């Protein structure tokens, strides 16, 4: 391969990457642009990237018409709680699955993968009835239960990779020094797993933060609704939308997920690939 | 030796507990002791600021005057109402008073989810709303909702282009025929402009409801009362007109076939389309978004052998069968739909009230923003043809929508369209009528 071919190949790669980035970024950039446009500008036949007369009216209207802050707080409570509980449950489970590879662990792993294939619609009515019997309908607590169950399989799968990346020899050394199973897990394995645990927790957080369907069905009271549900209140019949305020509210709702994902994306890929190659 | 990280850990644990304890405490739901006061949950689908404000204000007025029956306003969404109600009914957690559209009620009514209001409705309300509107919420022998707001489809036209073309401007008394409409669309086309832009992202309701005026019904019932699809000459008028405008005359824009109504507005404001057939309530968006100096006019839709008749699916208020307070729920609906209140709700949504008294209100007869044209069309609004047909949603999604989309784009001819709508359609309907 000549130097020229290598340079051309590399340039092609960067071009493809740039095209992909533009493709991914376009909807979000358009959302930001829309959020700052007046109704008149939104109805223009020749839309521009940069608003000609930028305005904050859409943000004002969005906050004025819908309880965005309150809904955001509900989303935050549900997402943080779900993430914490999911990680607390998933960590020891993942440890067992990674360290004790028997038929049970294989079956459990298989079940985790299969469970991801169930569509929401299939689960929602039985889930609704179970939560009703638990008197957990219309409570953020009930919603958190659902989010924990929903994010647990993937959290387990992610953490499994992280646990396998921790050398078993370290635990054996701790055992030789007299540490029990729990002590080993808490004092030796957990600190090494910390980046993976954080990444998993943040992934569970983002899943819960963005979730719409369960929140729609399970929460009745307006004061308990989460942000994705409140966003639908900007939509009318037959797909008509109050586009400016909707874009403003959607932009604000997207920010936490974006910031968090920017922080954890390296760790997520690390977690997925951990243990893939024997070193 | 003390672990220096211990205080941090303690703080973390305390933080987690502080977050979780209120959650667990909240698991008991919202069954507070109401001290003998009845609380009705009213799920409203009002979404535009004016209509939300009007609805909330009326709820507030009710609550002030009825301390023993309090109404809790719950915000719903048009986009998700069907799935949300379906689940709520299954779980016995449906709101007491339900805001919806009449074309969404059939399966809930036949499924025993909604209360039959026949014996509960006050005479005043029964008399005030015309029989044709009650027809939209009557399933079998029961009345399962109160129709209260409706909107005709109208033509919104660019006034300047219309006037300069020299065509006859239609009125409710002298509307265009479908043939004349085709001629006008051709005349308004040219120089990079289309005479009409049909936003047909949802082609079924537009085709069926406008088809009523052309003598089409599409759905008929046999002697046993079973619904079946029939595609008559009247049913063919609207689809063949649109298809010819798009594929033969090129007086209708092909690009708008996959658009929703809002998507066509920039082209309309920019002079790219001279007319856009839209629901009456779209005027609110047009009034807000139109550039300064842009003049627009509301025209009646073309008339056929049945005149200006067109199908509508009014917005409705229903009561859940599971509600323990049906009488109180109906009393609240009656309050919400007094003529003066109905006018407020209609104004907020830029729609027409169904009530005869409310329709007389002078505010609905002003020429400004085309209100008078809409009000004059009210007597011609009929129940949408598919209104009470069980299985209609599946027929619409699986048969009619793809068939009409292919037909309008020129991929299939009228014979194939007829075959699909009738043969495939009847197979779907048969499953619901065994």
From TrEMBL, chain A:
Q: Which Pfam families match?
A: BPD_transp_1
Q: Which InterPro entries match?
A: BP-dep_ABC_trans_perm, MetI-like, MetI-like_sf
One GO BP annotation is:
transmembrane transport
Check the record and name the SUPFAM superfamilies matching this protein. MetI-like
Q: What are the TM regions of this chain, as residue ranges?
A: 12-32, 76-98, 110-131, 143-163, 184-209, 243-264
| Compartment(s) of residence | Cell membrane
Concerning CDD domains, the annotation shows:
TM_PBP2
* Membrane topology of the entry: Multi-pass membrane protein
A single Gene Ontology CC term: plasma membrane
Could you tell me which PROSITE patterns the record lists for this protein? ABC_TM1
Its keywords, alphabetically, are: Cell membrane, Membrane, Transmembrane, Transmembrane helix, Transport
Q: What is its main location?
A: membrane
Q: Which residues form the ABC transmembrane type-1 domain?
A: 72-264
Entry's family note: Belongs to the binding-protein-dependent transport system permease family.
> What is this protein identified as?
Inner membrane ABC transporter permease protein YcjP
Species this chain originates from: Streptomyces hundungensis
Q: Per UniProt, what is the name of the gene that codes for the protein in this document?
A: ycjP_1
TrEMBL record, chain B:
An example of a Pfam family matching this protein is: SBP_bac_1
Oxidoreductase in keyword set: no
Q: Which PROSITE patterns match?
A: PROKAR_LIPOPROTEIN
Q: What SUPFAM superfamilies would the database entry show?
A: Periplasmic binding protein-like II (SSF53850)
Give start-end of the signal peptide: 1-25
Taxonomically, the superkingdom here is Bacteria
Task: Look up keyword Signal and say if it applies.
Answer: yes
Record keywords: Signal
Protein name as it appears in the record: ABC transporter substrate-binding protein YesO
């Amino acid at each position: 391969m000549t130097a020229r071919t290598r340079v051309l190949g590399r340039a092609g790669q960067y071009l493809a990457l740039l095209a992909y980035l533009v493709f991914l970024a376009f909807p979000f950039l358009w959302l930001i642009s829309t959020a700052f446009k007046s109704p008149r500008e939104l109805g223009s036949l020749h839309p521009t990237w940069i608003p000609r007369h930028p305005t904050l009216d859409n943000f004002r209207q969005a906050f004025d018409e819908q309880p965005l802050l309150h809904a955001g707080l509900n989303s935050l409570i549900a997402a943080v709680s779900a993430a914490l509980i999911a990680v607390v449950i998933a960590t020891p489970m993942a440890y067992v699955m990674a360290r004790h590879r028997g038929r049970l662990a294989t079956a459990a792993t298989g079940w985790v993968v299969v469970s991801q294939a169930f569509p929401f619609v299939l689960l929602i009515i039985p889930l609704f009835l179970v939560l009703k019997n638990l008197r957990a309908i219309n409570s953020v607590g009930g919603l958190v239960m659902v989010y924990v169950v929903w994010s647990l399989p993937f959290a387990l799968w992610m953490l499994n990779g992280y646990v396998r990346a921790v050398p078993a020899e370290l635990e054996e050394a701790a055992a030789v020094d007299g540490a029990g199973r729990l002590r080993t897990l808490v004092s030796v394995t957990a600190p090494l797993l910390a980046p993976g645990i954080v990444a998993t927790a943040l992934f569970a957080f983002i899943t819960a933060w963005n979730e719409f369907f369960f929140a729609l069905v399970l929460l009745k009271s307006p004061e308990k609704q989460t942000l994705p549900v409140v966003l639908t209140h900007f939509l009318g019949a037959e797909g008509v939308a109050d586009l400016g305020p909707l874009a403003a509210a959607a932009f604000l709702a997207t920010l936490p997920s974006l910031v968090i994902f920017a922080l954890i994306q390296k760790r997520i890929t690390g977690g997925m690939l951990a243990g893939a190659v024997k070193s | 030796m003390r672990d220096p990280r211990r205080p941090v850990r303690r703080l973390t644990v305390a933080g987690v507990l502080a977050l979780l304890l209120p959650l667990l405490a909240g698991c008991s739901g919202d069954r507070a002791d109401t001290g003998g006061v009845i609380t009705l949950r009213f799920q409203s689908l009002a979404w535009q600021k004016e209509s939300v404000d009007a609805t909330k204000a009326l709820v507030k007025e009710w609550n002030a005057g009825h301390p023993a029956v309090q109404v809790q306003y719950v915000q719903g969404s048009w986009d998700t109402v069907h799935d949300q109600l379906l689940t709520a009914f299954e779980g016995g957690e449906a709101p007491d008073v339900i805001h919806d559209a009449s074309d969404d009620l059939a399966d809930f009514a036949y499924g025993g989810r909604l209360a039959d209001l026949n014996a509960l409705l006050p005479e005043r309300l029964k008399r005030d709303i015309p029989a044709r509107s009650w027809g939209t919420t009557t399933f079998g022998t029961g009345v399962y909702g109160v129709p209260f707001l409706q909107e005709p489809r109208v033509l919104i036209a660019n006034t300047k282009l219309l006037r300069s073309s020299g065509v006859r401007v239609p009125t409710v008394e002298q509307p265009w025929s479908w043939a004349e409409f085709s001629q006008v669309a051709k005349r308004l086309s040219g120089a990079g402009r289309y005479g009409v832009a049909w936003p047909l992202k949802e082609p079924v309701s537009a085709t069926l409801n406008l088809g009523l005026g052309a003598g089409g019904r599409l759905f008929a019932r046999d002697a046993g009362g079973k619904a079946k699809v029939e595609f008559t000459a009247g049913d063919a008028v609207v689809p063949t007109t649109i298809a010819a405008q798009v594929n033969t005359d090129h007086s209708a824009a092909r690009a708008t076939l996959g658009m929703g109504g809002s998507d066509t507005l920039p082209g309309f404001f920019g002079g790219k389309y001279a007319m856009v057939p839209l629901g009456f309530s779209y005027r609110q968006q047009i009034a807000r978004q139109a550039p300064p100096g842009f003049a627009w006019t509301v025209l009646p839709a073309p008339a056929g052998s049945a005149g200006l008749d067109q199908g509508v699916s009014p917005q409705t208020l229903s009561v859940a069968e599971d509600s323990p307070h049906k009488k109180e729920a109906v009393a609240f609906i009656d309050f919400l739909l007094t003529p003066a209140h109905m006018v407020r709700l209609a104004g907020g949504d830029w729609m027409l009230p169904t009530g005869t008294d409310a329709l007389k209100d002078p505010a609905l007869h002003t020429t400004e923003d085309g209100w008078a044209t809409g009000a004059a069309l009210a007597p011609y609004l009929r129940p949408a043809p598919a209104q009470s047909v069980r299985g209609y949603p599946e027929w619409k999604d699986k048969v009619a929508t793809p068939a009409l989309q292919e037909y309008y784009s020129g991929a299939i001819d009228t014979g194939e369209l007829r075959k699909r709508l009738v043969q495939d359609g009847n197979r779907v309907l048969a499953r619901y009528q065994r």
